[in-house]
Amino acid sequence: MKKKPVVKHNRTTLSNQQETRKAYIAGIFDGEGTFSMTQYRQRNGYMNSRICIGVANTDRDIIKAVVDFFRKNAISYYLFVNDRRNIGRKIQYQLEITKHQNKTKFIDLIYPYLRKNRELAELFKDFCEYRQTRWEQWKKDGANGKFANKYLTAKEDKKYLMIYKKYREKADTISKTLYDFGGAKTKDDEI
């Protein structure tokens, strides 16, 4: 009786697969993702700030990979489907992470792999932790709507918004200096 040859498989450990998945998702959010902060006036007249961490794409497989990642890590999200076929365009899928604790968890998972949006991720994590702490204190003290602005102040939000705007201005300046579309040599030509 002949012995069957022993075939050794190159097995990737589960933790290694998870790290690869985190790096893949971080790459998607660095290239296609949105890290934005806006300020708006509420119905009661108070100013409020909101951050958005999301991604939009027409490739269903990419969106499915991100959704799977969110589900495996218990990150809640909204999925918007923008059907633009009637105007000759592809269907666009938009994902946005909900709740500050989910945004913080997501940033913690992908932070080591981020490149372009690393500074924004740090800022947004600080903002989410600040907001979560203030919200928990408000709930602990009785969650009276009349005193909500005592806990979530526009002044503190504005500090984060100003840092965000400075970062965006710096990013816009860099992109304007790297690319001169008037036919001059671009930074890419030097590579």
From TrEMBL:
Source domain of life: Bacteria
Listed InterPro entries: Homing_endonucl, LAGLIDADG_dom
A matching Pfam family: LAGLIDADG_3
Domain spans labelled Homing endonuclease LAGLIDADG: 20-110
GO molecular function: endonuclease activity
Coiled-coil regions listed in the entry: none
Protein name: Homing endonuclease LAGLIDADG domain-containing protein
